[in-house]
Specification:
Helix content is 19%, strand content 48%. The protein has 188 residues and is an alpha+beta fold. The protein folds into 2 domains: 2-34 and 137-186, no CATH class; 39-131, no CATH class. The longest helix is centred in the N-terminal third of the chain and has 27 residues, at 2-28. It starts with a helix and ends with a strand.
């Protein structure tokens, strides 16, 4: 009965030493420095286009001019009619600088503008959105084996480690000598 009482006292002492070591570790430990992640998004507004369809309006001819003297030239009538009926596309950039881009596209058919469109975009940032996130480093756990001995004794101890940014807490139990092991390692 006395042996059982001594064993319980030893276990109680080991548990209290482990608890005291953990409390000291948490008192000494400072809160970890969070890792800051910043994401910047730049938004551009006022980008669009306008499309204008030109519908020819009929117009009244006031008078006709009759030519009395004519000059005859050789003309390629088929080429003139082909050019008259074809659709010709034009496009160009009017303004292109750091703050604005303006371009147009036009279609010419029947010797007049059929349609024209304008595209513009604002090249200046109108809104900058910054999202900042703080991430705390996660604690790391480790398991290991501690082998120690000298000329009179030998012991093998399974140990558990809890790594924090500034310190590491270590606890274990010696199997051969039935001893508790508690430690604190300061990380520099």
């Amino acid at each position: 009965m006395g042996e059982l009482c001594n064993a319980m006292k030893d276990v109680l002492i080991y548990i209290s030493l482990i608890v005291i070591g953990i409390v000291i570790g948490f008192i000494i430990h400072k809160s970890p420095t969070p890792k800051t992640i910043t994401k910047i998004e730049i938004e551009y507004k006022d980008t669009g286009s306008y499309h204008i369809r030109l519908v020819p309006e009929p117009y009244k001819v006031d008078s006709f001019i009759y030519m009395t003297d004519s000059v005859w030239l050789n003309v390629d009538t088929a080429a003139m009619v082909s050019q008259y009926l074809s659709r010709i596309y034009y496009s160009d950039t009017i303004v292109n600088d750091s703050s604005l881009t303006v371009s147009y596209a036009a279609i010419v058919q029947y010797n007049r503008i059929d349609s024209i469109s304008f595209d513009y975009s604002n090249n200046r940032a109108t809104k900058i959105v910054t999202n900042t996130t703080n991430i705390l480093p996660s604690p790391k756990f480790g398991l290991g084996v501690l082998v120690e001995g000298n000329s009179k004794s030998f012991d093998v101890s399974p140990i558990a480690m809890y790594h924090l940014p500034k310190i590491s807490l270590i606890g274990g139990y010696g199997i051969m000598n039935k001893t508790a092991k508690v430690g604190v390692v300061f990380n520099f």
